[in-house]
Amino acid sequence: MWLEILLASALGLVIYWFFSGDKEDTLPLGDGWWGPGARPTAPEDESIRPFKVETSDEELNDLYRRIEKVRLTPPLENSRFHYGFNSSYLKKVLSYWRDEFDWRKQVAVLNKYPHFKTKIEGLDIHFIHVKPPQLPAGRTAKPLLMVHGWPGCFFEFYNIIPLLTDPKSHGLSDEHVFEVICPSIPGYGYSEASSKKGLNSVATARIFYKLMLRLGFQEFYAQGGDWGSLICTNIAQLVPSHVKGLHLNMAFVVRNFHTLTLFLGPRFRKLFGYTERDMELMSPLKEKMFYSLIRESGYMHIQCTKPDTVGACREGARAGQGEAVYIRSIQEGSQPGDPRPPPLGPRSQVTTSLRSVLELF
């Protein structure tokens, strides 16, 4: 027994030493150009332009025609959501989308807050900017950058913005009042997509940092979830002295030694401090962590490797675009091993988010 412990400890120390190099606390700021063609020699237009979400009868009629032409393959019996989005359930979603959802009303909802666009590194960046309606005497608002993820958009912050910008009117303390800036990630919603390869979270972080500077904020707070979590983390790594506070609702803390204990834990539970309950939750490791991850990440593999193929397939199929976003909501809300559509709240909220995401296509 003691020999096994010594061998496991020695192996762990060797692996830990091998993988634990010095990590960069900060990242180089750098610069970039993501617009079409070569970077112009003239200075970039730094004006901030008001923007309004609009739609037309032509766009809506085209959408309705595409929905009506959708041809769905019947699902396998009792398959539920095991093989992806169940087409029987999709019919209900499309019916609601076509006949019940009030698109024009939702356009008005989207325009509830002020929208703007500005050119940064060759891209037209969209954002909403909401200032407090009133401030206590002698107080200033705290600038807060809020970044969405995939398949979300700026709309996911609409319900919390009033609580941040006008807390007193909602029965909250006005000790902290925020001025909220919610940009759209390049290629999402109303932000222009990159014309060049290589636009990653670090480049997006730099773009949003430049946006905050352009708005006059040398210091600010940042909040992000999903991709926004990584982007906001990168902002803090790029310019730590400018980020006064960082809040993440999807945070990853993975240490190499901890990963090693996941593999050795079932055999040396007490050595690594795991309880029997820990083992129940983690075991079998390959099923509860690796198989489930692979099973629910098919979308990620094709989007990471052949995104143009997905885009071409969905160009004429709005149902496919809606399905991709809706299925992610289902996957994130379902219990492992129970692939059924969970309660998602008002379908209008999901569809309104789709409205912004679909603007990209």
UniProtKB/TrEMBL annotation:
It catalyses: 2-(5Z,8Z,11Z,14Z-eicosatetraenoyl)-glycerol + H2O = glycerol + (5Z,8Z,11Z,14Z)-eicosatetraenoate + H(+); 1-(4-methoxyphenyl)-N-methyl-N-[(3-methyloxetan-3-yl)methyl]methanamine + H2O = 2-{[(4-methoxybenzyl)(methyl)amino]methyl}-2-methylpropane-1,3-diol; cis-stilbene oxide + H2O = (1R,2R)-hydrobenzoin; 8,9-epoxy-(5Z,11Z,14Z)-eicosatrienoate + H2O = 8,9-dihydroxy-(5Z,11Z,14Z)-eicosatrienoate. Residues 1-21 form the signal peptide. PANTHER family: EPOXIDE HYDROLASE 1, EPOXIDE HYDROLASE 1-RELATED. This is Epoxide hydrolase. It holds the Pfam family EHN. It comes from Myotis myotis. Biotransformation enzyme that catalyzes the hydrolysis of arene and aliphatic epoxides to less reactive and more water soluble dihydrodiols by the trans addition of water. GO terms for biological process: arachidonate metabolic process; epoxide metabolic process; response to toxic substance.
